[in-house]
Amino acid sequence: MGPTSALVLFAVIWFMVFFIVLPLRLTTQGEDGEIVPGTHASAPADAQIKRKAKITTIWAVGLWIVIAGTILSGLITVRDLDWFNRMATPEVSQQ
């Protein structure tokens, strides 16, 4: 795995974790009782994006270490995920 693919893997993991963390402990304006004119009642009252980004980064680094370590160790390869034998090696003809 090169540096670019490691960075792309981290970005994908980070955004997946971020979308999981984003709705946690969310308080809407409707629940808070103070709806700002022009917004929906389901809009966040305090999104706490900075806190959630920090939590996401901590979890993403941990997950990235596990996933990148698994890839680099060779424990799981692309051929292991080839369930339909589309990557079968061509057989060498015997002469």
Report on this model:
The protein is mainly α and 95 residues long. Helix content is 51%, strand content 0%. It has helices at 3-21, 29-32, 49-73. Helix 1 packs across helix 3. The longest helix is centred in the middle third of the chain and has 25 residues, at 49-73.
Fold topology:
Blueprint: H1 3-21, H2 29-32, H3 49-73
Helix pairs in contact: 1-3
Specify the number of helices. Answer: 3
Number of strands: 0
Main structural class: mainly alpha
What fraction strand? under 5%
Tell me the radius of gyration.
22 Å
- Overall pLDDT metric: 90
Unreliable runs, pLDDT <50, ≥5 residues?
A: none
Order of helices and strands: HHH
Largest sheet: none
Overall geometry = elongated
Cα separation of the termini: 38 Å
Amount of helix? 40-55%
List keywords for this structure.
single chain, mainly alpha, 3 helices
Question: Quick recap of the structure?
Answer:
The chain contains three helices and no strands. By secondary structure, the chain is mainly alpha-helical.
